[in-house]
Amino acid sequence: MGVTIHDVARAAGVSVASASRALSGRRKVTPEIAERVARAAAELGYQPNAVAKALRDQTTGTIGMVVPGIGNPFFTTIVEAVERELQNSGTDLLLCASQYSPQVEARRLETLLARRVDGLIISPCDIEASVPAVLDAARRVPLVQLDRYIEGGGADWVGVDDEAGLALAVDHVIAGGARSVVFAGSRLVSSSARLRLSGFERAAARAGVEVLPPLLGEFTLEWGIEAGRGLLDAGRLPDAVVCANDEIAVGLVRSLRFGGARVPEDVAVVGFDDVGHATMCDPPLSTVRQPVEEMAAEAVRLLGQLKAGDPRPAQRIAIAPRLVVRQTSRPVAAGVEG
């Protein structure tokens, strides 16, 4: 049996109540008693009962997080950033993946709620099908949506300004001489997929360039490879391809180069995210950088202000992205990071 509060009290020569007050810090004791109790606890190796503390304080010191897939480098990066932010307050993170399934996502949320997490951070996998489970969870604990969000609001959201990011990418390839452009992205089941396509279309329309039909599949390297093959098979390459994430872009560059196309001489390619794949691409990928650390910090800050079922209108915080020019596009603009 481990060391108990009774053992600490006995060693310190105080009552159990005094030892409890000294260790919890919620009620004052004399400096002498506080020092005696702290010394006894350290000498005995006393560890507080986390379960008892949770029952007493009605908190568990844990936050649950649900993302669509941990294999996607972007979600790995954002999870790590959130965990770093939580460590500053001594809070632990419980992580689940929805596997891009609204049904699995709903079960993961119930699992985390059953573990009495103090709050939830979620990137919903489906803008429509995720609505019931996300809204139900938001009524029960503080909840913030990160990166993606559900249709109709109903819960706070922190993410990147997708439209601004796509405008940066489109304006960049046009400045490099592109007169025909195409978007390679995901099927329109998530808010990110929809916003990035619409942002591309608006930016291209403003510029007055030729826009080819979008290539929509998945946010994966494999889809990027397939999309590149489709462009080669069509017999006419666009001047530039703007991609919805870096995985698609890397796969597309690989496919185009394998098929004999030169990047960026024949086709300029720009991605979105600026995570691991971008610098490993050959040649290194021009992309739109998501402000991951800022997004994580803002999500954790916002979560700390929320109460379950808060009747106030949901907040939406969009953080500006940044263009990073490398070697899959032309030219390297002065003053832009390479």
Automatic annotation (TrEMBL):
**Which SUPFAM superfamilies does the UniProt record give?**
lambda repressor-like DNA-binding domains, Periplasmic binding protein-like I
Q: Which residue ranges does the record assign to the HTH lacI-type domain?
A: 3-57
Q: Which SMART domains match?
A: HTH_LACI
Record-annotated HTH cro/C1-type domain positions: 2-40
Q: Which top-level group of life is the source organism from?
A: Bacteria
Q: Name one GO molecular function term.
A: transcription cis-regulatory region binding
Which keywords does this chain's UniProt record carry?
DNA-binding, Transcription, Transcription regulation
Q: From the record, what ranges are coiled-coil?
A: none
One Pfam family it belongs to: LacI
Its name, as the record gives it, is Transcriptional regulator, LacI family
Origin species, per record, is Microbispora rosea
